[in-house]
Amino acid sequence: MAGHSHSANIAHRKGTVDAKRGKLFSKLCRAIFVAARNGGGDPDMNLKLRYAIDKARSYSCPKDNIERSIKKGIGELDAENYEEITYEGYGPGGVAIMCEALTDNRNRTAGELRKLFEVCGGNLGATGCVSYLFTYKGLFVIEAKTVAEDRLMEVVLEAGADDLQRVDDYFEVTCDPKVFDTVRKALEDHKIATESAETSYIPSNSIDLDVENGKRMLKLRDSLDESDDIQNVYANDNIPEAAMA
């Protein structure tokens, strides 16, 4: 593995799903709740809700959990009051990191994150300190063995995708979020299975880490995944294979 690509992130995350399934379902349902609260409970009219539901389904989140979260979001059931916050900072070796959070206590979350960053050799920064290094895109990850590159390129470019890259054993397709549904439908129509399909912050560059900082970065990622409040983590790290091992 050349580095910590988007496909590597997905493999790393999926590899720990079973051990953390309850926590993961809680995060997925929290995202559904907030999307429904902000945009209504109809996924056909609320794209953010549709994406949140699709993501929950991709991890086999129970249907009852999804429906209960929607009902909480539209006020049919009692629910906590969460707010969306994006925290930014620097990880080991100067890696740029963005953390999307849903929290009912921003002071508690900020304090916990500051400690996690410091323990792993990084520091929490001010709003805007690294966000300029990322672009919000639609991202599709496809196993390379399932489709020929020429065929995939023809399908996604015709649907409006921006780019297609081969990363190790995966293809990574990016697009403007406005055509995310168009690209996804094109892949579905051509029966091309995706390992992951989501909107994501894509870094404009990457930082190559040595083994020691690579290990610290993996520890920080795992610690952030453990946090109940953190929904998504984006970083421009490139972690060497020795650290992964």
Please render the helix and strand layout as text:
Blueprint: H1 6-14, H2 21-39, H3 47-58, H4 63-73, E1 83-90, E2 96-103, H5 106-119, E3 123-124, E4 134-143, H6 149-158, E5 163-167, E6 170-175, H7 180-189, E7 196-203, E8 207-208, H8 211-226, E9 230-235, E10 237-238, H9 241-244
Parallel strand pairs: 8-10
Antiparallel strand pairs: 1-2, 1-3, 2-9, 4-6, 4-7, 5-6
Helix pairs in contact: 2-3, 2-4
Domain TACO1/YebC-like N-terminal: 5-76
Domain TACO1/YebC-like second and third: 82-236
Keywords: Cytoplasm, DNA-binding, Transcription, Transcription regulation
Explain what this protein looks like in three dimensions.
The protein has 245 residues and is an alpha+beta fold. The chain is built from nine helices and ten strands. Strands 3-1-2-9 form a four-stranded antiparallel sheet. Strands 5-6-4-7 form a four-stranded antiparallel sheet, with helices on both faces. A hairpin with a 5-residue loop joins β1 (83-90) and β2 (96-103). The chain is globular. InterPro entries: Integrase-like_N, TACO1_YebC-like_2nd/3rd_dom, TACO1_YebC_N, Transcrip_reg_TACO1-like, Transcrip_reg_TACO1-like_dom3, YebC-like.
